[in-house]
Design a protein that fits this description.
alpha/beta; eight-stranded mixed β-sheet; 10 helices; 10 strands
């Protein structure tokens, strides 16, 4: 089995970065895997406290020795997460043809690399498949071991150069195409989640999400994304420390302690999984509305 190179993007979270590396190193495949670590540079006007965190993070990754080879790329200037990921994934996919992608707030199961690499090899020549995902939502109902959705995830994922080449960085073009093809409702999981609003916010500069553009790019190309029915990753970035996540427990998962059996499944979107995900998002929206009312009326 060909092992894909792993890309890890870090910035100023030394403790989290260490946890991510420790979890990743517990995978049997880690000792035979290449690990590329991209360290973003300090923002203009960064204070001494943040600079120390940046320096500490870089010290941690420079001393990482538990993989076949660790290649550390340190940016002198701040590129931001979006540009860093786009550039890094483009570079590694061009060099190797595929890549596994992580950020500094994604803890993985000890079976994460096994699942990712098996899936990447199984579907590498299946044009209908655009990506592999390690995360699944905290949905109690279990079904197929693996399944496909048309929506993507960005918490522990992988792709091939053939799919990444379809990435469209121009959010305006993506939105116009969604609207002209009357796909907005379907893209938004029939109104369960405001993906289109997120794309509009990226266009207007309210966010700098690469992920929503990746999601829309794959959706418009009708590409499928593979998911496990039990999550192999956990996002620890909802603690208020990260730049792009608010404090929340809505997406908290228990990482799978068993190996995911990877085998070919029908090349179409799993209707049951889509319905369960839609129900999950509706539940969160209702909870958030109730929480806002409680805050307003203090009860």
């Amino acid at each position: 089995m060909d092992l894909a190179p792993i890309i890890l993007f870090v910035y100023n979270r030394p403790e989290s970065t260490q946890l991510v590396l420790d979890a990743l190193s517990m995978n049997l495949e880690s000792k035979d895997s290449l690990l590329y670590i991209y360290c973003d540079g300090a923002k203009v006007g960064t204070d001494d406290i943040v600079q120390k965190k940046i320096n500490h993070t870089r010290e941690i990754v420079r001393n990482e020795k538990r993989f076949k080879k660790v290649i550390v790329i340190e940016n002198k200037e701040n590129k931001g997460l979006s540009i860093s990921i786009i550039d890094g994934v483009t570079e590694i996919c061009k060099q190797f043809g595929f890549a596994i992608v992580l950020e500094d707030d994604i803890l993985v199961s000890r079976y994460f690399l096994n699942y990712m690499n098996q899936s990447l090899n199984l579907y590498k020549n299946v044009n209908e498949v655009g990506s592999i995902n390690g995360y699944w939502y905290p949905i109690d109902e279990k079904f197929n071991e693996t399944f496909f959705l048309r929506n993507q995830s960005c918490w522990g994922w992988a792709t091939w150069e053939r799919a990444w080449n379809l990435f469209q960085s121009n959010g305006s073009k993506l939105l116009k195409e969604l609207e002209s093809k009357k796909l907005v409702k379907e893209f938004d999981l029939d109104g369960a989640y405001e993906y289109t609003k997120m794309l509009s916010d990226q266009i207007s500069g309210k966010n700098d999400s690469w992920a929503i553009r990746w999601d829309a790019s794959m959706f418009l190309e009708n590409k499928l994304s593979l998911y496990p029915s039990i999550s192999l990753v956990k996002n620890i970035g909802f603690d208020g420390e990260g730049s792009h996540c608010e404090i929340s427990n809505d997406y908290n998962t228990i990482i799978s302690e068993k190996k995911i059996e990877v085998f070919s499944v029908p090349l179409n979107e799993d209707k049951k999984a889509r319905k369960l995900l839609s129900k999950f998002y509706h539940k969160i929206r209702f909870k958030n509305r109730v929480d806002r009312l409680k805050s307003i009326f203090r009860f």
